Amino acid sequence: MAHREKGGGGSKLKILDFGGGMGLQYLDLITKVPSAEKLVEYTILDNEKLINTTCGCMKQFKNLSFVTELNAIKGDTDIVHMGSSLQYVEKWQELLVELNKRFKPKYFVFSDLLAGDIPTFVSAQVYFGKKCPHLFINITQFKEFLSELGMSLIFISKFIATILNQDKILPNFALPEAYRLDRSSNLVFKRNA
Predict the structure, then answer these.
(1) 98: which residues sit within 8 A by CB, 6+ positions away?
(2) pLDDT at residue 10 above 70?
(3) Residue 1 in this model has a pLDDT that exceeds 60
(4) What is the pTM of this model?
(5) How many CA atoms lie within 13 A of 2 on its CB side?
(6) Cα separation of 152 and 144, whole Å?
(7) Contact 143/151 with Cβ under 8 angstroms?
(8) Are 68 and 48 within 8 A, CB to CB?
(9) Exposed (0-12), middle (13-18) or buried (19+): which is 101, by Cβ within 10 Å?
(10) Rounded distance, CA 17 to CA 171, Å?
(11) What is the pLDDT of residue 91?
């Protein structure tokens, strides 16, 4: 593939983790797939304040980088991952169009996405006493939108959050029943050939 960097006996898989925080998903990846540390070029895009508080020990990983702007990322990307982040983006369709156009990913991976058989709506999430907009997406609308970007759904599952060894459902009981989700979703889309 022309968009993969050649070197060291093969090409590196390029992953963009949008809203990837301090790199916990990267650590999980290289723990479960040890060869990934050498074979994956992993870029985390997040806000400057969060990146500045990232542990200095993360700098030891030469194929892990942190950026605060899309313009800092050069070339195409094989996988765009968005974990628990799209629900905070007001203009999510515009963002996905830009990511698709700019990076031409082979896969879009969404984990812990607040999507289901509900209307699309925005609610207020209370987080440490502050309220912030929180997007819930109709899953049919979401799949249709990704289809318009040339992507097909190849995997879907429920996101299972376990806290203190207990399976937790989403605490959204204050919403009208038609707007409630029991769990968020994991979805993988692949670019059409």
Answers:
(1) 70
(2) no
(3) no
(4) 0.87
(5) 2
(6) 9
(7) no
(8) yes
(9) exposed
(10) 26
(11) 95
**Rounded to whole angstroms, how far apart are CA atoms 15 and 39?**
11
Three-state secondary-structure class, residue 135: strand
Using alpha carbons only, how large is the chain's radius of gyration in Å? 17
Question: How far, in Å, CA of 26 to CA of 129, rounded?
Answer: 30
Instruction: Find, among 112, 123, 190, 182, the residue nearest to 154 by Cα.
Output: 190
pLDDT of residue 2: 36
Look at the block and give the residue holding tokens 């700098």: 59
Distance separating alpha carbons of residues 181 and 173, to the nearest angstrom: 9
Q: Could you tell me the two tokens for 188?
A: 């993988």
CA–CA dist 45, 74 (Å, integer): 13
The b/e string for 126-164 (b: 16+ C-beta within 10 A; e otherwise) is eeeeeeeebbbbbbeebbebbeebebeeeeeeebeeeee
- Dig out the tokens for 46 from the structure: 């997040």
For residue 118, what are its two tokens? 């509900």
CA atoms of 152 and 193, how far apart (whole Å): 10
Q: Are 188 and 153 in contact (CB under 8 A)?
A: yes
Give the sign of the dihedral formed by CA 122, CA 180, CA 152, CA 159: positive
Side chain identity at 186, as an amino acid letter? N
